[in-house]
Write a structure and sequence with these properties.
Blueprint lengths: L1 H32 L1 H4 L7 H7 L11 H5 L2 H10 L14 H12 L4
Helix pairs in contact: 1-6
The structure holds heme C.
Length: 110
């Protein structure tokens, strides 16, 4: 009975964790790749705005403009760059990682 419980618990945790980690991994990758400029809550870093001479709202990924953007739109900005933001190529950030980063940014869109 005890072994069965352990086996069942192990199976449950395998089933449970993959769904949980997507947003968490997205958070880790976001914090590594985007946080310096876009801030921990993706509202933008004031000092980077000053340094790059962009309006702070351009670094805010939680604006209505960005909420309305589709995932494909956001992916395009990251891959092609926009204004002062340099493109981030696939060898620096894979498609899967970028998708997870976007789901993390979406958690600030609520
Ligand atoms: C070195 C600093 C830097 C990093 C790192 C960075 N960005 Fe940016 N990002 C910028 C700047 C500066 C802009 C404003 C560009 C402009 O339009 O002039 C910007 C703009 C954007 C925009 C468009 C915002 C808007 O309102 O139009 C999106 C979306 C975006 N970044 C996503 C990301 C994501 C996702 C990451 C991480 C994978 C990332 N950025 C990493 C500097 C950065």
């Amino acid at each position: 009975m005890r072994t069965l419980t352990i086996v069942l618990l192990a199976m449950l945790s395998i089933l449970y964790f993959p769904c949980k980690t997507a947003a968490q991994d997205g958070k880790t990758i976001y914090e590594k790749r985007c946080k310096t400029c876009h801030g921990v809550d993706s509202k933008g870093s004031a000092s980077v705005a000053k340094m790059t001479k962009v309006d702070p709202s351009m670094l805010d990924l939680t604006t209505d403009k960005n909420k309305k953007r589709t995932d494909a739109d956001l992916i395009e900005i990251v891959r092609k760059g926009q204004g002062k933001m340099k493109p981030i190529p696939k060898d620096k950030l894979s498609d899967d990682d970028l998708k997870m980063v976007i789901s993390h940014i979406r958690t600030f869109h609520k």
